[in-house]
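Recall that a protein's primary structure is simply its ordered list of amino acids. Everything else, from secondary elements to tertiary packing, is in principle encoded there. The following example makes that idea concrete.
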Amino acid sequence: MQNRLLIVLFLFFLGSECVARLDNKEYFQQRVGYKINVALDDKNHLLTGNIRIDYTNQSPDTLFFIYLHLWPNAYKDNSTGLARQFMVDGKTAFAKARFPDTGFIDSLDFSSNDKKLKLEIDPENIDIAKLILIDPLLPGQSIAVESPFKVKLPNAKFSRLGHIDQSYMITQWYPKPAVYDRQGWHQMPYLNQGEFYSEFGSFDVSISLPKNYVVGSTGILQNNDQEKEWMTSLSEKTKTQSAFSNDQNFPPSDPEFKTLNYKQDNIHDFAWFADKRFNVLENEITLPDSKRKVKTRALFTNDKALLWMKSPEYLERAIYYYSLWNGEYPYDEVTAVDGTIAAGGGMEYPMVTIIGKPVSAHILEQTIVHEVGHNWFYGILGNNERSYPWMDEGINSFNEMRYFETLNKDQVKSDLKKLRGIKGFITLFDNSGLYAREINELIYQFTAREASDQGLQLASSDYRSLNYGAEVYVKSALVFDYLKTYLGEELFDSIMQEYFQTWKYKHPYPADLKSLFEMRSGQDLGWLFDDLLKTDKKLDYGVKKIKKINDNLSQITLKNKADINGPVIVQLYKENKQIESSWIAGFSGTFEFSSTTDFDKVHIDPDHRMPEYNRNDNVMRSKGILRKFETPRIDLLAGPDDEHYTNIFVIPFCARNVNDGYMPGIAVYSTPIPSRPFRYAIAPMYGLESENITGTGFIQYKKLSKVHPFHSVDFALRANQFGYESSPFKLSYYKINPEIIFELINDRKQESITNQIQLRGFYLNKEIAIFDRKEFRYDKEITQDIFSELIFT
């Protein structure tokens, strides 16, 4: 027995040591080199080419196969991960697609040193394959593999790869090795929601196509001075134009072909776009530190051309500010292309981005800035976006938000007080570039207050489509803005620049970013990296009490009403002028501090730099009976929530039913955008035919639950009064409905399904007519049944 125990202990410690070695494996990174020759057949929408992949195993492990992504196969049929995701999201167009709208990659025949290699297609995902090696690939060894290939381009209305007539979006189009890193292989199907993770290396790509196509591409054009001169001449012509034709027809393709050779090192993807109708604008930007010049290029059709004429400014400012804040742009060119993008407003690739059809100058600028910014957060810092989308979309969205605040700070600050009511709400979204931060807060609070948010710990494919934007883009941006404000701009920027220099052309993980921030700031930042960025916990502080100790001393009590103990900024005001401001370390429960300042108001985070989901009790006056009472404010229809006011919205309306006829009335309600936990509505009306007072209304309180498996609990009391018989007597009823709704946590995260338990009751008071021989009289029929109806939905 004793010997057996020693053996068990030995095996336990041996296993523990093996796990520790795996978890603490020193950083390594594989290297891939590509040489691709491809030709475009624009009659049949085919790519025909060959590829050579030079793969270097820089890991400490011996490899017996290489996972390959064959992502054009995602468009082949309804069995793919892309097709399954479309169906879960309720998008049925792809399920109905047939040839020639579908797409695929075929004619693959891999070999190495003239020896044929076996390609095993994944049984679950036909866009993933194993390339079986003849000989094991030892640490430090390299292998060159080659294959012909053909790609049938799908209709681009589905996702990122494809064509619209003879406009071509050539993305994720070639066989590509999956990443092998400290956590093993990262093979993944192509998805519409959920982007990529690829190995860094070098690209040498030659593209043959009809001579009159204008091409925007990753890499630097190497071989064709005539092409460069033609592009310059197109740019000079475009710069002189003040009007553009409405003609969007494709000219005939030139019978003569040209071959364009592009090269680039230290990138992990290659995309190109081609259209015979493109206008061209070329310019250059001087980088802020090195003063090195970077060529900028915009390619666009006549549609929305006048908006695109300002695109060089957007490209230049994006490159300048991202370089200033994060580290200099390392490549020599950047290109933005006008095109069809079915997977969102724009899509990024190294050195080139495609932009969807903009509806305004603000949207065009916003999209260009965001997509160009991905050259840093995805392009140069190549994190696993499928598993940790906030590291890419979130940090990039923060920089985008900072960009617009930097350009428009004074204008926004002066305008914010005017943004009330429905007019202000419309103004926010019509000028989304100006009010990026304000819109982000509205979006985040909308999902957080409704308890429909999912947190930031999920893979990109696990989000509901609404939350993919509200969480990954918006909440992450607000969280990093919070961190910048707390640490201070100088320290924050120095850490981000060190992060860039340390991890450029590499694969950082969340722990790498967290450790760097904690090491350089000297602080435990678990409240951000472990709570705000990993869970759906909320940040919510309030001013609980102000107590006057004596003429020279006041005591202020704050309360943490939620689950995250992040730092809180408190400002004191006198006659609406800020006189004191300080950060207080995060706490749970309550926190008291004293002030000798003569103030008349305490305000938590007046500049909205903390991602709080509820600001209703952030303000308290030091004097008066109703010190927490918010000033009532009446607006028409709707408007943004404002912690300074109690919003009362009104709207006149008219309804109709059989018994009351037309019923003019007025609705009075308390629901701003986003709504508060407590809400009410009352809509009194008058029945023109019944001559009765009618109406409906409710009061409701929604509370987030901390008890598994409930997500929220909704308490409501609803009431209505209407006629129920108009002939021969005008009879009416009123009904009162109390209800409690328990919303369950939805583990089927991608589906728009709400799981609820509803407990309902009712009280019904109804007029009835009683007849005898000589008279009739009214009486009341009362029915009540409190909380007897249990409904599962």
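Residues 1-23 have pLDDT under 50 and may be disordered. The longest helix spans residues 393-415.
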